[in-house]
Amino acid sequence: MKELPYLTSFLAFIQLEKTLSENTVESYRYDLQRLAGYFEAQHINPVTEAGTDILSKYLRELFDTGFAASSIQRTLSSIRGYYAFLVSEGVIKEDPTELLEGPRHNRYLPAVLTVDEIMRIFNAIDTEKRGGVRDRAMLETLYATGMRVSELASFTFEQLLYEEKMIRVLGKGSKERLVPIGDIALDWIKKYYDVDRPSFARPESDSTVFLNFRGRALSRMGIWKIIRKYAGLAGITTKVSPHTFRHSFATHLLEGGADLRIVQEMLGHANIVTTEIYTHIDREYLKEVHRSFHPRYNK
Prior knowledge:
Largest sheet: 3 strands, antiparallel
């Protein structure tokens, strides 16, 4: 894949002149490499052809793929920084990001599925076919825990506290949180481990729970494609992404009467103010709320 022009100079600039941290610089690099891949696939020159309309379309495609509004906002910051640098260096005359709008949270929130629609998606999975049990276990886990797609992709068996019916979720910034998981999802994970996973695993496979056909961890895009496939088979006409399951998880708990603060704790919100509020929530109370209000906790 071709690198964006002047990318190395831009990254050196933000690290040395702007004194941004190494983690931030790496985030910018990752965002801009992904943009470079998009330009290459679309045969777009990033300097002479990347206008506001093209960049706006790119951000919309990120949303359709299931990226959260916060991730899209960070990507936008990376793109703005890059093109502002090109202007300052005299490479381009006009900044194509000046009129580019960031994601509005109410605009970018995915549609919420009903419990019936969730069940239709589950029932669309043929568990007799290879990969069917894996897909059912994966979607049950996604809905049971409200995990982000990146958290689900990196989910390992070491994180599963089977007897306690909890998962140690590794969230953004390597922050760890404990999230309850119900009997039904646990049963599907066990069935997948016993029946389906051995056919995916290779000698080089690690302890990642959900593997692809090459024995490696499923990617974010791979998970998104699986969800889109079954949503289509279930006749769901709205766009469904991993984040739709996460949002539905929270909405269904709240509609059932769960406390907003408890749901935010389960979701692992990054806002430091809300995080401080929830640090002393009792684990048993957390499990009790999940057990009482999640529609698929009990068998």
